Amino acid sequence: MPRDPREIQLEIDAARESLAATLDHLAYRGSPTRLKAQGRDAVQRFLTSTAGKATIGALGLLVTLVVVQKVRHRRN
């Protein structure tokens, strides 16, 4: 028994809407602006956390020690 053309059209329209929603979701997830903002926010959260502050402090100490060692090595 052949299908009703209106029923076929409704299925096509539903599939088209579903595909459009999927494409919109993918475009949102892959948006460079959104990803940049999300990354920036994650870095800011880390740097203001206790672990982030400790990491920055340790990195600063390491850089200071390397610079002092280089200066002492050049003087010798």
TrEMBL record:
<keyword id="KW-1133">Transmembrane helix</keyword>
<protein>
    <recommendedName>
        <fullName>DUF3618 domain-containing protein</fullName>
    </recommendedName>
</protein>
<dbReference type="InterPro" id="IPR022062">
    <property type="entry name" value="DUF3618"/>
</dbReference>
<dbReference type="Pfam" id="PF12277">
    <property type="entry name" value="DUF3618"/>
</dbReference>
<keyword id="KW-0472">Membrane</keyword>
<keyword id="KW-0812">Transmembrane</keyword>
<feature type="transmembrane region" description="Helical">
    <location>
        <begin position="50"/>
        <end position="68"/>
    </location>
</feature>
